[in-house]
Amino acid sequence: MTAEALAPAPSLARLANDLTRDLMRPNPGIYWLDLVATAAVTYLSLWVAVTAQGAWAFAGAAVCVLALYRAVSFIHELTHQRRDELPGFHLGWNVLVGAPFLTPSLLYEGVHMLHHAKDRYGTVKDPEYMPLARLPLKSLLGFVFVALLAPVGVILRFAVLAPASFLIPRLRRWVVAKTSAMTINTAFAREDFERAGKAPWLAQEIACWLWSWTVIGLTAAGAVPLRAVLIAVGIYAVFAFVNQLRTAVAHYWENDGAKMSFEGQFLDSVNVPPPALLPFLWAPVGLRYHGLHHLLPRMPYHNLGKAHARLVAHVPQGHVYRQVEQPELVPALARLVRKPR
Length: 341
Prior knowledge:
- It is built from 16 helices and no strands.
- It has two domains: 1-24 and 261-341, no CATH class; 25-260, no CATH class.
- Helix 2 crosses helix 15, helix 4 packs across helix 11 and helix 8 (150-167) packs across helix 10.
- The chain starts with a helix and ends with a helix.
- The protein is globular.
- By secondary structure, the protein is mainly α.
- 58% of the residues lie in helices and 0% in strands.
C-alpha cells in the first residue's frame, strides 16, 4: 500500500462509527430464526448422510458440512454480543450446537476478545495470530491441514481430559491453560482459571463430557452404528478444514510481532464483499467482512452488509477502506502463498 493510501487511516474508525451508529443493536429475532433454521438443516442433512446411500449420502454430507459450519460460526457472535440484548441465545446455542458437537462457547469466550486488544493484536500475546505470510510454504500447508484432526482433538479434550482433570488438580490447570481455547497461536495459554471454576463453564464442560461418553457407550453397545459416527466425524473434520481455509485469508498475517494501532488491525484484515457470492458459504455469519469487523467489533453480523454499503458509498474508490478487499477465497489464498518468504 502507498503512503497516500494510508494517509486517511487515522480517521477511519471514527468515520465507520459515525456512519453506522444506528446499526449496532442486534435483532434477537434474526439471530434465533437463523440459528434454529441452521440447526434444523444441520441435523436433517446429518440424518440423510448417515442413513442414505450413494449420491444422496454424499449430498447430505456436503450440506451438513456447510450447515454445521454456519451453526458453529455463531460462536463468534456470542463473544461480541451482550447477553441482555440476546436473551437466552448463548444457552440456546450451546444446547443446539455447542454441546452436541463438542464445541462449547467456553472455547471462545474469554479468549477471542484478546485478539481485538490493541496491545495484543498481532503479537505473541494474541491467541489468534501467527505470521502466516512469513512462514515457509510447508508450515503454511501444515497449518491448513492440521484442522482435519479437529474431531480427534475435541474428543480427547472432553471424553478423556475433562474427567481426568477433575480428578487431578495439576492436570486441570494445564487442561484449562492449553486445551480450552480455539486458537492458532500455539504459545498462547489461558490465564482465566477463575472462569473455569464457575457454573457456565462447568455446565458446558460436563455436558460435553457426558454427551461424548454417551455416544461412545451407545456405539460400543451397537445402538449407534459405527458408520454413522465415522460419517459425523468426517463431516466435522471437513467443516474444520474449510474454516481453516477461511482463517488463512481472514488477515494478511504480515505483522512481525510489534504492537499495532486500531486502524493497523484493520489494514491487516480482509473483506470479501459482494459481488462475490461464495463467501456466503465459506465465510458465513458476517465473516466475509472481517476487516470491517475489526473496525466495528460490536456490529451484529446481520448489519455488516449494510455498514459496508454505507462506507463504500461514502468513500472514494482509492480510499484505504477499499484497500483490504479480496475478490474470492482462491485469489486470497494465492496471494498468501505467493508472498515472498
